[in-house]
Design a protein that fits this description.
CATH architecture: Up-down Bundle
Bound molecules: fe (ii) ion
Low-confidence stretches: 1-7, 220-225
Length: 225
């Protein structure tokens, strides 16, 4: 998906509101592709959990940190720091690892290699340190994670797991995180406005491709025979 460039950008708040709408639409489009847990075989459910773990456990805090390093506005920095404090203080990577282990979905080398190319593309993108683009990407990521938690919990449940702290926490706190990132986006646009021809959805496209690989790799959408 590509944001439509316009010759004259609106005021920061209006521009941020327009981006918010586009991000939410991109999340909804992606969620429409997520299969129900009962449409998947046990092996397909295990693969989705394993690939999600591979990407999120090691990269979410890294990418939020890259976003912190990228932004110029004080308000955006404060909002992103709050997010990082929660991630690190409550040890979200460990929470996710418990979820994955309980669903018997520890990543294998096959799972790691399945997402490697798309993961590298997002890593390189985040490392280019574009403040506004990185916030847009992370707002999309938070928005997706929050909505994905319901089907994700169902997949783990069908794998025989009762461990749902990760999905409960992220189904709730990521609503606030997403809203806060939209506020950070408006603050950053105000002092670091992007050029009118910049594609602000470059990271959303790359991250969307990675998430589609998590969800669909190995025939994730095939119906159970
Ligand atoms: Fe988290």
């Amino acid at each position: 998906m590509t944001s439509a460039p316009s010759a004259v950008l609106p005021a920061p708040e209006a521009h941020a509101a327009s981006l918010q709408e586009q991000i939410q639409r991109a999340v909804d489009e992606l969620m429409a592709e997520v299969p129900n847990a009962d449409q998947l075989s046990a092996n397909q459910r295990r693969g989705i959990i394993a690939r999600y773990d591979t990407v999120l456990e090691a990269n979410f805090i890294y990418w939020m940190t890259a976003t912190y390093l990228s932004v110029m506005s004080k308000e955006a920095r404060t909002i992103i720091l709050d997010n990082l404090h929660e991630e690190v203080g409550d040890c979200h990577p460990e929470m996710l690892r418990r979820f994955t282990l309980a669903a018997d979905a520890m990543p294998t080398d096959t799972d790691i290699l399945a997402v490697a190319r798309d993961l590298t593309n997002v890593r390189l993108f985040m490392g280019r340190m574009s403040g506004v683009k990185n916030i847009v990407t992370m707002a999309f990521f938070e928005g997706f994670i929050q909505k994905f938690m319901t089907p994700f919990a169902e997949m783990a449940d069908r794998q025989g797991s009762k461990e749902q702290e990760y999905t409960i926490v992220h189904g709730l706190c990521d609503i606030t995180h997403t809203q806060e990132l939209f506020r950070a986006l408006a603050a950053e646009i105000a002092i670091n406005p992007p050029h009118s021809t910049t594609d602000l959805f470059e990271g959303v496209d790359l991250l969307g491709t990675l998430i589609r690989t998590i969800v669909h790799c190995g025939g994730g959408l095939d119906r159970v025979a």
